[in-house]
Structures are given as structure tokens and as C-alpha cells.
Amino acid sequence: MEGLFFNINGGYVEGIVRGYRNSLLTGQNYSNLIQCETIDDVKLQLAPSYGDVLASLSPNPSTSDLASRMTDKLVAEFKYLVAQATGSSAKFLEYMTYGYMIDNIALLITGTLHERDTRELLERCHPLGWFETLPVLCVATNIEELYNSVLIETPLAAYFKGSLSHQDLDELNIEIVRNTLYKNYLEDFYNFINTHPDFSGTPTQDVMAEILQFEADRRAINITLNSFGTELSKLERRKLYPEFGKLYPEGSLMLSRAEDVEGVALAVSAVADYKAFFDAVGMSQGGGGLGGMGGGPADGKSLEDLFYQKEMDMSKLVFTRQFTPAVVYAWMKLKEQEIRNITWIAECIAQNQKERIGNFISVF
Amino acid sequence: MSGAVGREAVFPTRQSLGLMKNKLKGAEIGHSLLKRKSEALTKRFRDITRRIDEAKQKMGRVMQIAAFSLAEVSYAVGGDIGYQIQESAKQARFRVRTKQENVSGVLLPTFESYTQEGVNDFGLTGLGKGGQQIQRCRETYARAVETLVELASLQTAFLILDEVIKVVNRRVNAIEHVIIPRTENTIKYINSELDELDREEFYRLKKVSGKKQRDVAAADAEILAARQKAAEEQGKNPKAAASPALFVEEADTVDVLGDQEDNDVIF
Amino acid sequence: MAVSAATYKERQFLAVIGDEDSVTGLLLAGIGHVTEPPGSQRNFLVVDSKTETSEIEQAFQNFTQERKDIAVLLINQHIAERIRHSVDAFADPFPAVLEIPSKDHPYDPEKDSVLKRVRRLFGE
């Protein structure tokens, strides 16, 4: 049924995205890239997809310049999509930007807490997380004002309300604030795609639910792993777990009780995918520990890498579905990964660390 | 050479001659000791310079590896964490303490890094993602900073030793080229002055003894004349002969004493 | 050499003047320190292309002359280059000024103030 009317509003956007998808780098491109000797060579190799934005860069640019130009292009393309989208698709795209907004707000909170001039921070904000009223937040001089402006001015008000007070912003570590917001965001997004009349029962719901569940699980696992040895209590930790996903509720409960890497491995063992990851990086056998976490296994793949790999695979599969704005989400993730890959390769070349250059995730 | 440095303002007496001789001896001992110190320090200094050179090269590599681990972080986090890190820094976890090392009487400070326990500003950074890479990056950078601290110790030692060696060498040179020649000069001066005095004294005594001899001769002649007169008179008056004989006796005694004195002065 | 114990006993921090990546990395290692308010001072300065040379100069003076709690000052070589005369003129043993490479500017021993002296001493 959804195929019947989707293209009236969403067809153009989807078409554009599928076009964008074709310009993503392939394994062939990557193998050319890793042969490069200088950043200029990299620039040359990237000419088909990024030529227009990279052309104005000075010879042998720094990798951060390279990355920011590529991000600019991604942002420009995404903004075009946003401009074209209507109705529920537009809402969907808006949801995608909330994650970046959270980062930006966290940045501003940090700045305000330390009484820095937050206006300087605006240029550090991620362009995708930009919203019209963001500069208004810079007017706030103390955290209470900021809190009130956030509630009034931003789309994120719902994520603050109920779980964070302005005292919390002052007292809690910014990472806890950020992750609380992110948890609320993920839950809201999940709720949105499951209940919105335009999406429930469509491919959007199918694929996005899976992706978001994965995202939720990944965050829960990462938070658990990263909180070992910090002052984060188990109770606080548990509050940061999104309340859905494949691990929820039993796995989450076990995660919240986990005291070491083995505990985490045990908690996720109910889900075959995650169990495979933990087995692959050797964390489930007692030898793991923090050292194993830090050093990673011999083939250079860390748990984080495997999660990224999985995310990319899922994003790739999204393109097999039609009549859904989820392809925009997938394209965005693929593109971000691509930028990370290129930055990584450029970094390896710039710093002469060729032995690690293959440590990127090629999707196509 | 010796003429240029002049001499110390002393009175040319035997006492100051003794003082100067002691001073010269002291200066020579001091010179050889300082020379040895300077050699020991220079040896150490060369050692340190060589190690600095090596350490600086090593630092280049270490920092590159560290920078690379930061690249891994930005790959994993997928964004910029710089600002957040800058703002969440509160208490230094990585600190240095300074210790002293004694090299030939020079106290060289050495930095020693230590970690302030219980301070962890970035424990939660990267909680959502990238935490493991950040952890690894922190370790890499901590190791890099250790190398830097080591290098800093070397460099400080280098600067201090450089300074100390300069001072010591200056002292060695001062002793060698100024103090010793000047002391020698002074000794020479005192000796020559003393000799001069001796000659003057000798001459004076000679003069005195000459005058005395003349006086004695005159007295003798007078006595002789008196005796002759007496002898002539004895012919007329033999009773008066006893008293002039007594005069002769006295004059002889005085003469002998005078001679002895003269001898004494000469030797 | 009159280096009394008091001059360096309280020197326990490292300071850094560098580009964003270098500073971030060194802060991750845990060298960052912010003194107690009021008048809290940071022991690091991030320099980018927009930073005025006078600002770097001021930070350099602050870390080397005014603050007595800094044992080692790390400065990116390409930034030291911008205030080279100050770096060259600074010859005190405390704090030790150390020129470090940055990500985009590999280390060049030819420019290092101290290494220049080393080389000169060896008559190279």
C-alpha cells in the first residue's frame, strides 16, 4: 500500500539519495587511495566525488581541512534534501539532526559552565545540529538562563524536561547530561517511527527500528564498558541505557550489574550478533580485561570497529528497501563513515603510518 | 706576560713574603682542583649533549605516534573532542617532582614524573562512543609526556652545566693567568726589595765600620803619639809612665768588640 | 650556580602552548591544571591561525616568568618559531622550555634553540 502514494511526496528525495549513494567510494577507490604517497595524491583520487569542494584547498592540506571540506559537502547535500522533503519525511530528517543538536547543546553547556564566551563556540558547533535559535542560547550567561532558553527555544526541550533540571546541568558531568539526552532522543525517535501513522507498518518502521535498536544496544554496551573504573555508579549508569533494543530489558539489567568485561560479555550473550563481536575481539575469554580493551586484538579490529562495521552493513541493506526516508539516514551514516575513512587514510599517509592504513571500513 | 698583570699592593716585608708564598701554593692547588672539576663536568656535559641529541630525535617519533593515536580517537568518536577536553581539565593528573643529583659538587635537578592518584578529569569522556580509543590515546600520550619530561631534565641539566662549566673555566683561567702570575710577581718584587734593603744595610754597616776603623786608627795614632811623648817624658820623669799604659789597655778592648760586630753583620 | 631548592620544589606542573591537537593530546595525558578560582589560570594555550602573536608572547612570559609552579613548558615548534626571539632569549634553567613537534609540522632539529647550542658546542 505504502508504495502507492509514497512517491507523491517522498519520491524525489529518495531518488536524489540513491543518486548520492552511487557516488560513495567503492573498494576499488579505497585501494587506489591507500596507494597514495601524499595528500595531494589523495585529493586527486577523490576528484570524482569531492573534486568541487577540494579544488580550492592549498597543496598538501592538513587532514582536518580535508575532513571539514568533505563534511561541508555532506552538509550541503543534506540541507538540499531537507529543503526538498515534505510532511512526515521532513519530520524524519529533522529527527536525524537532533543527535547533532545534542552535541552542540552539550558544547554550549560546557562553555557556559566555565564562563567562556559561548559565541566563539558557535563555529565549533556541528553544522547539522544547527537550528535557527541556537545563537539565542549564547545570550545566557549562567546555567539557569541557559536551561530556560533551551526549554523555550530548542526542539530538544522534551529531552530535558522530566529528566534533567538546571541543577543537574551544573552538577552532573557533561557526559552524563549528553548521554541522558541521547537516550531520551533515541527513545523518542524510536517511538516516532513506530507510532507515526505514516511510518508504522511501512519499510521505514522495519529498517529504522532495527537500526535504532542496534544504536541503543551499542550505546548501552559502550557506556558500560567505558564506565569501568570511573565514578559513574551502577544506578546512574542504568539510567543512561535506552529503554528499548534487543538487550532490553533482561540484557540491560545484566549490563547494569556488570562489573567487568566478562560481565558485559555475559549480558550480551543472548544476542547472537553481539556475542560474535565479543568472541571476535577475545573479550569473553577471561584474558580480556582493560588491557585487552585498550590494545585490541592482533588484527587491529576493536569492538568499536566491529560495531561500525555492523552499522555500515545495516545501512547498506537499507538501500534494498524502497519507499522510505530511511535511505537518507543510511546514506548519511555511510557518508560519515566514508569521511572518517578518508580522514583516516589521509592521516596515515600524512604521518607515515602506512602499516595501519587498512584499518578502515569499506562498504561497497 | 708577568709584567702586564702587575702586583699586589703590599709592603715588602718578610711577613708578607711568607703570606705570598702561601698564597701561591694555595692558588696552585686550587687551580689543579678546579681544572679537574671542570674536566669532570665537561665529560658529563658531553654525555648529556649526546643524549639530548638522541632524545630529541626520539621525541619526534614518539610524538608522531601519539598524534596518530589522537587521529584514531577522532576516527572513533567521529568528531571534535578538543574543546570538551580543554574545558574539563581541572586537576593535573600527570605531574613532575624535582630531585637533585650531585655531579662534582654541582646540584643538577632531575624531573621525575608521577601520577596524582584519584584525579581523573576525563573518565567519562567518550562514554557513548570512542571511550576505549580515548583510553588508549591517554596512555600513549602519557608515555610520550614521560619521554618529554626526561628530555626536559636533560635539557635543564644541559643549561645548568653549561653555566657552571663557564664559571669554573673562568675561575681556572683567572687563577692561571691572573692570580698566579700576580702572586709570583709580588714575590719577585718583595724579594728584590728585600735584597735592595740588604745591600743598603750592608753598605751602611760597611760605612760605619770604616768610620770606626778610621776613628780607631786616629785614636791609635794619638795614643802612639802620647806614648812617644810619655817615653820622652819618662826619660825625664819615669813615675808618670803607669797611667798611659792603662789607656792603651782600654782602647784595645773596644777595637776587638767593634771587629766582632762587623763580622756578625756580614754573615 | 645558585639554584636554591625553593625555586623548584613547588614546580610540579607542565604547561603547553600548542595547536589544538597537541594540546588535546597532552591534556588527555593529564597535564591540564586549572588553578582555584578566583583568578583561575589554565596552564595551556591553544593556538590557531587566528591567535595573535602578542597573545602567544604573553602566555610564554606568563608561563616562564610569572608562574612559579611550572617545571616544564612544552611549545609546538612552529609556534615557537613565531616568538623565536623570546624563546632564544630565555636561558634560565627553570622552567625547561621544550620544543615539540606537532601533527602537521614534523620536528626540525635545525630550529630548536637548545639543539642549536648543542650543535654549536660540537662545532658542527
UniProtKB/TrEMBL annotation, chain A:
Similarity comment: family membership = Belongs to the V-ATPase V0D/AC39 subunit family.
This protein's record includes keyword Transport: yes
GO cellular component terms attached to this protein's record: proton-transporting V-type ATPase, V0 domain
Q: How does it assemble?
A: V-ATPase is a heteromultimeric enzyme made up of two complexes: the ATP-hydrolytic V1 complex and the proton translocation V0 complex.
What SUPFAM superfamilies does its record include?
V-type ATP synthase subunit C
Q: Which residues form a coiled coil?
A: none
Q: Which UniProt keywords apply?
A: Hydrogen ion transport, Ion transport, Transport
The protein here is known as: V-type proton ATPase subunit
Naturally occurring in which organism (per UniProt): Penicillium roqueforti (strain FM164)
Taxonomically, the superkingdom here is: Eukaryota
What Pfam families does the entry give?
vATP-synt_AC39
Give any GO molecular function from the UniProt entry.
proton-transporting ATPase activity, rotational mechanism
Query: Per its database record, what is this protein's job?
Result: Subunit of the V0 complex of vacuolar(H+)-ATPase (V-ATPase), a multisubunit enzyme composed of a peripheral complex (V1) that hydrolyzes ATP and a membrane integral complex (V0) that translocates protons. V-ATPase is responsible for acidifying and maintaining the pH of intracellular compartments. This subunit is a non-integral membrane component of the membrane pore domain and is required for proper assembly of the V0 sector. Might be involved in the regulated assembly of V1 subunits onto the membrane sector or alternatively may prevent the passage of protons through V0 pores.
UniProtKB/TrEMBL annotation, chain B:
Fetch the Pfam families from UniProt.
Answer: ATP-synt_D
**What Gene Ontology terms for biological process does this UniProt record contain?**
vacuolar acidification
Signal peptide range in chain numbering: none
Give this protein's Gene Ontology molecular function annotations.
Answer: proton-transporting ATPase activity, rotational mechanism
What do the Gene Ontology cellular component annotations say? vacuolar proton-transporting V-type ATPase complex
Q: What is its main location?
A: membrane
Q: How does it sit in the membrane?
A: Peripheral membrane protein
Cite the InterPro entries for this sequence.
Answer: V_ATPase_D
**What UniProt keywords are attached to this protein's entry?**
Hydrogen ion transport, Ion transport, Membrane, Transport, Vacuole
Where it sits in the cell: the answer is: Vacuole membrane
Q: What is the documented function of this protein? A: Subunit of the V1 complex of vacuolar(H+)-ATPase (V-ATPase), a multisubunit enzyme composed of a peripheral complex (V1) that hydrolyzes ATP and a membrane integral complex (V0) that translocates protons. V-ATPase is responsible for acidifying and maintaining the pH of intracellular compartments.
Family of the protein in this entry: Belongs to the V-ATPase D subunit family.
Which PANTHER family does its entry note?
V-TYPE ATP SYNTHASE SUBUNIT D (PTHR11671)
Give the protein name, as stated in the record.
V-type proton ATPase subunit D
TrEMBL record, chain C:
**Record NCBIfam families:** V_ATP_synt_F
Location(s), subcellular: Vacuole membrane
Protein keywords: Hydrogen ion transport, Ion transport, Membrane, Transport, Vacuole
* GO MF term set: proton-transporting ATPase activity, rotational mechanism
Q: Where are the transmembrane segments?
A: none
Q: What is this protein called?
A: V-type proton ATPase subunit F
Membrane topology note = Peripheral membrane protein
Summarize the subunit comment: V-ATPase is a heteromultimeric enzyme composed of a peripheral catalytic V1 complex (components A to H) attached to an integral membrane V0 proton pore complex (components: a, c, c', c'', d, e, f and VOA1). V-ATPase is a heteromultimeric enzyme made up of two complexes: the ATP-hydrolytic V1 complex and the proton translocation V0 complex.
Q: What does this protein do?
A: Subunit of the V1 complex of vacuolar(H+)-ATPase (V-ATPase), a multisubunit enzyme composed of a peripheral complex (V1) that hydrolyzes ATP and a membrane integral complex (V0) that translocates protons. V-ATPase is responsible for acidifying and maintaining the pH of intracellular compartments.
Ion transport is among the record's keywords: yes
Protein family (similarity comment): Belongs to the V-ATPase F subunit family.
Q: Does the keyword DNA-binding apply?
A: no
**Cellular component terms per the entry's GO annotation:** fungal-type vacuole membrane; proton-transporting V-type ATPase, V1 domain
